[in-house]
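Before relying on records like the one below, remember that each one covers exactly one chain. Contacts with other chains, cofactors or solvent are not represented anywhere in the record.
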Amino acid sequence: MRRLAFALGAAVILAAPRASAGQVNELANVRGEVAYAVPAAAASTRPLSGRIALSDDARAITGFRAAARLTLPDSSTVEIGDKTDVRLDAFRDAATRHEIVLNRGALRFTIRHPAGAASNYVFKTLTTQLAVRGTLAYLVSGPNGDQIYCVDCAPGDVTVNAASETYRVESGQTLNVRRVGGRAFDAAIVPNAGVNNPAIDQFLHGFSPFGRPASEGTDPTGSDSGK
């Protein structure tokens, strides 16, 4: 494995078509206890039973066995797993990058492939940065690190920067980033077939993409999502 330096405030950058000013995100409760805070730094949260349009930055928190869905201005979607804490930035205009900060938990994102547009979606974790152009993938983050699982990622569509190293992840591959003492320590690409993370399996009715039950899986990130 390669030794990595400390990466603080890293990001997942998702390429997407430009959106006109005034477009907003929509956050919807899929099931269970979902709460949100507007602005994201607000001390208290509000329960969400249906859906809400977010024109300002916000924070979403899901409870045990809960789920939510974020629909972005270009119809790309981000599914939010249970026991997940994520900050959603405002999409104010075409020149503003749209940020989603995964503090902890699991996301499944389907991003539309842009036609010559600049990257203006940014997903952040503590230790990982992905530049993505139109893909279906999972991102899991916990105290022990991050996991990026690529389902439909064409060659060159996913470039991962973890500290001083760069990795290119394609369909059928997973990148595990290990965190020690709050710092990125090392990372490795492994085949998807060997991955059975309950945090990912929750989006597939409790089974891995290869049909293995979540009860037999392990989560190297320690996110506690999907359990």
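Residues 2-216 form a domain with the Jelly Rolls fold (CATH 2.60.120.1440).
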